[in-house]
UniProtKB/TrEMBL annotation:
Species assigned in the record: Basidiobolus meristosporus CBS 931.73
Gene3D superfamilies the UniProt entry points to: Ribonuclease Inhibitor
PANTHER family from the UniProt entry: PARTNER OF PAIRED, ISOFORM B-RELATED
Gene Ontology terms: cellular component: SCF ubiquitin ligase complex
The name this protein goes by in its record: RNI-like protein
GO biological process: SCF-dependent proteasomal ubiquitin-dependent protein catabolic process
Length: 554
């Protein structure tokens, strides 16, 4: 077992390097991550992150990490997942040596290859000593060519336990030519069940040389600007076990993609996620054909930025069945897009609501107060409910929560017309919530007594809380510490002092993810925040420049 006292390679960083490290905060920073090895309570889910910064090489951190696991080999046996964030390594041998001490490693995220290694040599060296590897993420393949790709795939295929591969080729066109030699080398990924690809652009030849060798693929996720027109035809022929399909792509040819889904039927598909980059007007005829082809078997349906109106809801109610467990319709960029026609939605929920466990809707659907009654009446098994960018207020949601509040484990009602009175409603009707996200309310002033009324009765069950957008003060943090001792994940606004945040961070026993939203950029250079990375209470401290400029600890 790992000692109760957490080990930390941060302590081994020479004092002369510390100034250099903090100088990096002000540099061109993509990701800055530091980690200690975990304490006893983290024994099975340790995730060491490695420093990346322009003037501080990851190799320093890797060396320190390697020294520690050499001193205590038991530590390495608890590491299941390793992420290495850097650019190029002048010497990759240190990484390979370190992997020898991680026999239980199941997931690895690799950086760019060393200039001294070809990509196929690099991957071969990595996977050779990891018998339990199930997931490999390779962040970039700048050295990959049409000639080397078959060898790389052959290397990955040789890892018998591998069940998931994620490959990312940003800003690069991949082109491979089908040849007999290529087919011979490629073999077959007989064990591969899940494949995630993030490709800026890709041509049809790439998939022509890959998909035929994925006979047992069950889950496929593709994020790319344009899905090549041969992907679905190949899958319908070669991936007969495919159950889950996710496309995140441009809206330019949305109708064509739906037509291809209909034409090339995937017989076992029960999970379909379509996410377009902007709101897309689709042909109602094509939409109906799509639902006619797949609706009867769907257990999960997600439609993001597909124009869904009353007529489309009728199509959903016509073809979806009680098999459906998760429904997500998101069109938040278009206000009032989902016109809440009572009869249309009643037809849908009366048919599918009894089996729904997760429901996510946005786009102004709650401009009809009676709509919440439909969910409360017809969706008795909901465990997760997300209502985003709607017109809901406290009184609109009350009849819904009165009916199903006690079945809910997760509630997200962000960016609605909510006030502090919602906490009183939750205290009365929602006693089993583990996760509450109530962010960016209409009235941002939080009433501490209302919040206390909820926390006193139900706070001990909470593990995840998001209060971004509220005017939270020190009194609120005191209530959380007193009545919600089991919080693991907390999202807070920027209205708190660093002193109060530091106290909350230190005194919340199980906290392992603290995120502050809308933090002023200059605050990330504050010495108080910088010093937190040396707090050995946390297994991982990670800082990233996100879209909303925040820092967070994991």
């Amino acid at each position: 077992m790992v000692d109760n006292k957490p080990l930390s390679w941060l302590e081994l960083i020479p004092s002369e390097l510390q100034k250099e490290i903090f100088t990096c905060f002000k540099g061109r920073l993509v990701d800055l991550c530091a980690a200690s090895l975990a304490s006893k309570r983290w024994n099975a889910i340790v995730t060491p992150f490695i420093w990346y910064a322009p003037t501080f090489s990851s190799l320093h951190a890797l060396e320190l990490f390697r020294v520690q696991i050499q001193k205590n080999e038991k530590v390495g046996k608890y590491v299941k997942k390793l992420s290495i964030i850097d650019k190029y390594f002048e010497s990759a041998e240190e990484i390979l040596e370190m992997l020898g001490y991680l026999p239980e490693l199941e997931s690895i995220k690799l950086p760019y290859t060393s200039p001294s290694y070809s990509t196929e040599h690099w991957l071969t060296s990595v996977v050779r000593g990891l018998p339990k590897l199930r997931c490999i993420s390779y962040l970039d393949t700048r050295s990959v060519t049409s000639d080397s790709l078959p060898e790389i795939i052959q290397v990955l295929k040789s890892t018998k336990s591998l069940a998931e591969i994620r490959l990312i080729w940003p800003d690069k066109m991949i082109s491979t030519q089908p040849t007999d030699e290529y087919h011979t080398q490629l073999g077959s990924f007989t064990n591969l069940a899940s494949l995630h690809l993030n490709l800026a652009t890709v041509d049809s030849n790439f998939f022509a040389n890959l998909i035929p060798y994925l006979p047992n693929l069950e889950c496929f996720k593709l994020k790319t600007y344009q899905v090549p027109n041969n992907v679905l035809s190949l899958m319908s022929t070669h991936c007969l076990h495919l159950e889950s399909l996710r496309f995140h792509t441009a809206s330019l040819k949305a109708n064509q993609l739906l037509e291809e889904l209909v034409e090339h039927h995937l017989f076992k598909l029960n999970s379909l996620i379509l996410n377009f980059d902007e709101v897309t007007v689709i042909s109602r005829k094509v939409f109906e054909e799509l639902l006619a082809s797949y609706g009867v078997k769907l257990k999960r349906l997600t439609l993001c930025n597909l124009l869904v109106e009353v007529e489309d809801v009728d199509i959903l109610s016509k073809y979806l069945t009680s098999e459906l467990a998760e429904l997500e319709i998101r069109n938040g960029d278009v206000p009032n897009l989902l016109r809440a026609d009572h009869a249309a939605w009643q037809r849908l929920f009366s048919k599918c609501g009894s089996s729904l466990t997760s429901l996510t809707l946005d786009g102004g659907i709650f401009n009809n107060p009676k709509f919440s009654e439909l969910i409360g009446t017809f969706c008795p098994k909901l465990r997760k409910l997300s209502l985003l960018d709607n017109q809901a207020d406290d009184s609109t949601l009350m009849p819904l929560l009165r009916n199903i509040g006690n079945t809910l484990n997760e509630l997200n009602i962000g960016q609605n017309r909510i006030t502090s009175a919602m906490f009183v409603i939750l205290a009365e009707y929602c006693h089993n919530l583990r996760s509450i996200h109530i962010q960016y309310p209409e009235d941002s002033k939080i009433n501490a007594s209302f919040l206390k009324s909820y926390l006193e009765s139900c706070g001990s069950r909470l593990t995840d809380l998001n209060l971004a957008g509220w005017e939270v003060d020190d009194r609120v943090l005191e209530l959380l510490q007193q009545y919600a001792p089991n919080l693991h994940t907390v999202y807070l606004p920027n209205t708190l002092t660093l002193k109060s945040l530091d106290s909350f961070r230190s005194n919340t026993k199980y906290l392992n993810h603290l995120e502050v939203w809308d933090l002023p950029y200059e605050a990330i250079f504050d010495h108080q925040i910088s010093s937190w990375i040396y707090d050995r209470k946390f297994a991982i401290w990670e800082y990233s420049l996100l879209e909303h400029t925040s820092w967070y600890m994991v």
